[in-house]
């Protein structure tokens, strides 16, 4: 039973919240619509102010929705415009907090996974891959995710996947080569094997031959062999990024795998420090959970009494407390804690 006055106040709160969110959406939308390279400094500054004035959750959700609606369309998004949108996310990711980029990245990857499984005719997949590629270009995400996506595309190896592999390699191939040449070599070898064992109809396609030539050019670090390759726009925006990012010296690239992002709802988001998680247990235990026995040897009742007084209310806390209290020196404590 909810008393009428409480019900009324809840409804008023909900209406107020809806109004606030609508106003916030309007403000963020206005800023995103005006987004261009010359006014990026002022827009990113205004976005940071909005982050300070509103809850992070509301801001992350609003920004992600607006950017997804703007960038994930059935027609190919202009490369320049795409880069500017991602650069804004990158600046906020570095200046406001890693949860900004993490929230956007998770939404993009989940949408990509969903659309790649469906048979859509539009250019949504290319736009999503471009978003992921530029998130890597502007140091929001680590190359680990890009290699995971490349492996996934190579293992499927249909016409659609070949297009996406080419698009990725053209956009971030040389950066991947700098980051992890060995992993790139493995992906290239796997793609060559797939191309050789593919059915004749697919193998004879000029697109497949072009993809193999591109991979060869990447392996040999030959930029001239890739038609239309122009690193200039990305480099120009990276310079702008360096002027706008307040470097704090800490690592902000998200070193997260494709599998972790897709199963975030089941296993939590370990890559965001302090993110709350109220899901099911991380390990699916069908049997009864066996209590872990902690070997701390014989501990006097006096120490156990002290532990109880200090509110060490779990086995592991009691064990750590007892180890610290009974160790001879720091090395002894270290050895016991390791055990």
Automatic annotation (TrEMBL):
The keyword Nucleotide-binding does not apply. GO terms for biological process: ribosomal small subunit biogenesis. SUPFAM superfamilies: ARM repeat. May interact with EIF4A1, EIF4A2 and EIF4A3. Interacts with PPP1CA and PPP1CC. Residues 181-208 form a coiled coil. This is Nucleolar MIF4G domain-containing protein 1. It is found in: Nucleus, Nucleolus. GO terms for cellular component: nucleolus. One of its GO terms (molecular function) is RNA binding. Belongs to the CWC22 family. Keywords: Coiled coil, Nucleus. Plays a role in targeting PPP1CA to the nucleolus. Gene3D superfamilies: 1.25.40.180.
């Amino acid at each position: 039973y909810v008393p009428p006055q409480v019900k009324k106040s809840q409804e008023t709160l909900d209406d107020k919240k809806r109004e606030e969110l609508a106003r916030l959406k309007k403000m963020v939308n206005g800023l995103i619509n005006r987004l261009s390279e010359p006014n990026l400094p002022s827009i990113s500054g205004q976005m940071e102010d909005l982050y300070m004035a509103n809850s992070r959750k509301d801001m992350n959700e609003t920004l992600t929705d607006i950017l997804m609606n703007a960038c994930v369309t059935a027609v190919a998004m202009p490369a320049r415009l795409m880069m500017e949108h991602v650069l804004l996310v990158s600046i906020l990711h570095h200046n406001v907090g890693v949860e900004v980029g993490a929230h956007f990245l998770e939404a993009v990857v989940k949408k990509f996974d969903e659309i790649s499984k469906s048979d859509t005719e539009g250019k949504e997949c290319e736009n999503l891959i471009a978003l992921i590629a530029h998130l890597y270009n502007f140091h929001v995400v680590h190359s680990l995710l890009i290699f995971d996506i490349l492996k996934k595309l190579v293992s499927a190896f249909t016409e659609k996947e070949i297009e996406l592999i080419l698009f990725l390699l053209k956009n971030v191939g040389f950066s991947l080569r700098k980051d992890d040449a060995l992993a790139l070599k493995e992906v290239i070898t796997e793609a060559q094997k797939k191309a050789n064992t593919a059915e004749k109809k697919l193998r004879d396609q000029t697109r497949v031959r072009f993809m193999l030539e591109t991979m060869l050019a990447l392996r040999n670090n030959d930029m001239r062999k890739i038609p239309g390759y122009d690193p200039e726009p990305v480099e120009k925006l990276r310079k702008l990024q360096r002027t706008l990012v307040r470097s704090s010296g800490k690592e902000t690239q998200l070193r997260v795998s494709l599998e972790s992002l897709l199963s975030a709802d089941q296993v939590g988001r370990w890559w965001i420090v302090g993110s709350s998680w109220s899901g099911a247990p991380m390990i699916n235990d069908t049997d009864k959970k066996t209590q872990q026995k902690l070997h701390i040897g014989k501990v006097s009742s006096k120490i156990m009494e002290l532990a109880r007084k200090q509110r060490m209310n779990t086995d592991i806390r009691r064990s750590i407390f007892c180890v610290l209290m009974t160790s001879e020196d720091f090395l002894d404590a270290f050895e016991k804690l390791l055990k």
